[in-house]
## 1
Amino acid sequence: QAKDAGRGTWRFFEAEMNRRLQARKALEADLRRALAESRFTLHYQPQVDLDGRRLVGAEALLRWDHPTHGPLRPAQFIPLAEETGLIGPIGAWALAEACRQAVAWPSLPRIAVNISAGQFRRAGFVAMVERTLRETGLPPQRLELEVPEALLLVDTEAVIAGLARLRSLGVSIAMDDFGTGSSSLGTLRRFAFDRIKIDRSFVQGLRPEGEAMAIIRAVLGMSRALGIRTHAGGVEDERQAALLKGEGCEEVQGYLFGRPMTAEAFTTMLAARPPELALAGA
Ligand code: C2E
Ligand code: MG
Ligand code: MG
């Protein structure tokens, strides 16, 4: 009887695994089709300096309008795109689209584009960035690439060389989601990032004397010492903004200052609140 039960459990697992494999295959086919049919879009979220609350940039965030599942967020398809290699063409499209859009928004100081580790490591990545800048006409100084901490864990020499080449073009490099990975002070020193983006999980737990506060204070102090600019994500209320400002954090992003929005909505916002004017709550 125990044996039967075991067999039943196994059949269940088998069915479940088949189901997942099928779902994955279907999603992969969808991903290829989406690329061919241009079903990806970018949303743009304002980046603001905490002192004057002026618009200093926008982060481009990928969206996929799936025919049956509806709008999907990157977490739902980027991992699969990495596994299948489709991150190459999808990422190249996102970069080109963000650069084209930034050219159409001359008053926007900077456009930030996310690059995943698998994307960065692909052969010809830096050359692709150079070509995109040339073809779109975006001055490299207006482009910032956001890279994950995990990028520095493997094949460090090649990665550092790639990052250095990008910086020599004038492109700036931000370390994204700082604090969620395992980079050490040593990795930060070996590659001088232009900016550190403190992960929103620290901002969300912010209390005047709490642990998150202590971590943020330490990261800000360390960044200052290394000459790296600072940014915090996920700022949703004035209390968080005030605490971050009090600690000397330079820039922020979050629902308090604007949600990710379509290019159209961003264009409207730019017209209504040009970058030289303060944004929400000032
Ligand atoms: P990220 O770079 O850390 O982007 C910030 C994420 O936080 C975005 O999620 C954004 O919608 C969300 N967010 C912004 N402000 C707030 C806030 O105040 N509260 C809360 N709760 N959330 C906030 P999203 O758009 O789902 O993107 C998730 C991740 O996907 C990004 O994290 C980035 O790592 C990746 N990603 C996005 N676009 C691209 C892309 O074009 N290429 C690659 N390779 N990765 C991308
Ligand atoms: Mg980012
Ligand atoms: Mg993040």
## 2
Amino acid sequence: LQRIGVLTSGGDSPGMNACIRAVVRKAVYHGLEVMGIKRGFNGFIEGDMVPLHLGSVADIIHRGGTILHTARSVQFLNPEGRARANENVKRFGIQGLVVIGGDGSFRGASIFNREYGLPVVGVPGTIDNDIPGTDQTIGFDTAVNTAVEAINKIRDTATSHERTFVIEVMGRNFGFIALAAGLAGGAETILIPERPFSYDEICERLMRGYRRGKLHSIIVVAEGAAGGLEVARKIKERTGFDTKVTILGHLQRGGTPTAADRILASCLGAKAVELLMAGETRKMVGIKAGKVVALDIEDALSQTRSIDLDMYSLAGILSI
Ligand code: F6P
């Protein structure tokens, strides 16, 4: 193995840069060359890649976003797009590929491996924490901390004005960010897609608090469970409470990565290079019970990712 490629794909997440750095430094340490592929699989198809050296990844460990840029490539879904990518694999002499991204990116990488045989390793990078095969994804911890910081600030004004606040967080079809941020932020109610809810139940909880003299309340809603605006409208209709909404949106995707995300990114990025050097062909890396693990991509993606419903119940108990 002489030359590998690295790309970031899908939604960016804090810690992707730390991961690129780990891939490059680990590879160079072992005498490999690294090509940085721009804009996810689009750069692969268009042959938009640059050599990355030790210095190319200096001063990025603490930066959010991704220096390689990212995209959700529609072209790579088509066989023609992948055929063009394969031309570039030959042209640039790429012998292995590290894909930092989410499950969609892993699926694309896996299909490409089956079609053209290029060894690929996926590194889970997404704020959603929704990838099976790993306990945590790169960027999740930072996104949760960002959301908690926002909840803290909203709590100040919610308390002063004795208002109900609905805070909508990201997470796509999963409630990982909502549960973690809601528990850490002391939210009175957490709505996640994994657990059905009813407006009667939510309003009953609010009214119970109100009767006890609790005049403010924070409801964290995962975007996959319901829209924040809709939740607020329904609560207002039923209770008459002055209900405000904050949609945290893309601010959850940016910012300097936490130490936990930088450490995770460093360990997983380095492991990906090790796997390519060991001749592995279609793996993803992850963290399980504190240990770095490697799994077959297809096996991992066939598993279902489940949220800790005991933790969800606990959050309910602690916020009565
Ligand atoms: O997958 C990361 C994520 O931020 C999700 O939480 C969210 O649903 C989606 O991406 C938003 O996508 P976009 O940046 O394309 O609006």
## 3
Amino acid sequence: ATARVPPPKEEFGDLVAALPRKEQFLDGRFYQGFWLPEHYTPGVIAFQRRFTPRPDDMVLVSYPKCGTTWLKALAFAVMTRAAYPAGDHPLLRLNPHDCIPFVEDVFTDGHEAKLDRLPSPRLINTHTPYPLLPEGVTGGGCKVVYICRDPKDMVVSLYHFLRRLQPDLSFADMFDSVTDGTVPYGPMWDHVLGYWHASLAHPDRVFFLKYEDLLQDAGEHVRALAEFMGRPFSPAEEAAGAVASVVELCSFDKMKDLEANKRGTAGTYKSMPRDAFFRKGVAGDWVSHMSPEMAARLDDIFRDKFGGTGLTI
Ligand code: A3P
């Protein structure tokens, strides 16, 4: 008989209860340098301690509200492009979050056996900070793709997202949590820098993307992503416009209007309405939400933190 694996909430309950706590729009626990959402903390710890990657796994990581949905759609479309006839792709029927499991939900709910049952190559998704990833992953056991975004647009996006559940949310409180680092999965600069440095040290294993770059030239980055994933577009595919097809299938305008992305909820934690993952899909919407002073403050903080790393915002 196989030993029963206790649910993370039970197994790591005492550990989590002893961590520093912050009550806010999403209550946080400070674990190994990062403010994890309290609800997901046992799940992240379980992932960190229990997950063993397969060599052809692809872990898609994002800072929340920085392009997770887009990256999941693009990676899934790249990976599965040969398997479906044009016009009959699962992304036309399913929300990207229903195509690729979210580690935090899987582990928090004690459903990790689901990951074992997935056929290879597996695509899995998390917001886990780099230093908290399972050793098997950081040790080179599989590949990682990361996406980040201008923190000003991240905070605006996060505000609108969480307002769907908490209509009286304060933008000022959320802004402050970004600046003091207590925002969920924060400090954001440390989250981004962890993956930035890993991508410089191991470019063959860690691929770093920016939301704004994708907006500017999705095709170029989809090509590079496919190459990184070991599934480069062949000359015949190039000639047939396969890159443009992937970009079009995953484009904001296309996805936003699909029935699968308008109805129902995704994820188990608080069950977000699926349409909440598709709001504006642009860069620079921060101008309508913060004063030039606030913007300058955020820019200064990140410029300072990123100083000398080669990373710009
Ligand atoms: P906005 O709120 O600025 O519109 P995440 O997927 O990490 O939760 O991030 C959500 C943000 O990505 C939202 O930003 C959302 O509109 C945008 N987004 C979702 N799907 C997208 C797509 N296919 N193309 C471009 N942006 C997308």
## 4
Amino acid sequence: DVAARAVDVWKVYGSGEAQVVALHGVSVELERGRFTAIMGPSGSGKSTLMHCLAGLDTVTRGEVFVGDTRVSGLGDRALTDLRRDKVGFIFQQFNLLPTLTAEENILLPLSIAGRKPDRQWFDTVVDTVGLRDRLRHRPTQLSGGQQQRVACARALVARPEVIFADEPTGNLDSRSGAEVLSFLRSSVREYGQTIVMVTHDAGAASYADRVIFLADGRIVDELREPTSEAVL
Ligand code: ADP
Ligand code: ADP
């Protein structure tokens, strides 16, 4: 069962002298209910691949699917719908709205989509990330680790087809990073969430079920059930 798929995806930025081929015909299937990490050095195309899969960026050639939806070829309007209804995002910089409380931030994707929150699921998610006593706090009143846990809850509460996490531990100390990664892993194990995480940190990637290695815009290696020694 496949949650997202890239088929011979090419991505070219710019033209002429300034042309950069960021992806050279990448094909990959991301299984549903799995935690996949995409690793590779800076400039290897990790963010580009994630953005193409998530409908944040268009492909130059090839096809991308999220669930049954063929993402490549969708217009701007349909891409907006896809991002709202089918995918969740976690960013390095948390990207919480500063004027909203933690609870309002968590519920924002549902209110934008005009969906009613399932209170029981909301409570489950909030308890799993350990934010029960921080729901009325605004982002500036929370530590970095707590803010990222709010962002995780916000992604998970909408039960998206796939959660895309771009360097989610990049701004966290190792303890807060480990908490966030444990939460991501348990949301996969316990709730069947599908997660795709971009990272250049081998320690972070070792939380995943599968690691895909990119170099110069190509998949060069892959590991199942990685240990941190194997990823390094
Ligand atoms: P990574 O996430 O692995 O660091 P990126 O996907 O950000 O790699 O970048 C892959 C390549 O594409 C790099 O050579 C980068 O300079 C280039 N690139 C990324 N985004 C753009 C852009 N908007 N315009 C031009 N080149 C870009
Ligand atoms: P964590 O265990 O999430 O890493 P810390 O140990 O950094 O949290 O912070 C302990 C407490 O201090 C947190 O519960 C939080 O409420 C508060 N706190 C941390 N950073 C900030 C901040 N920048 N502004 C306001 N309060 C903060």
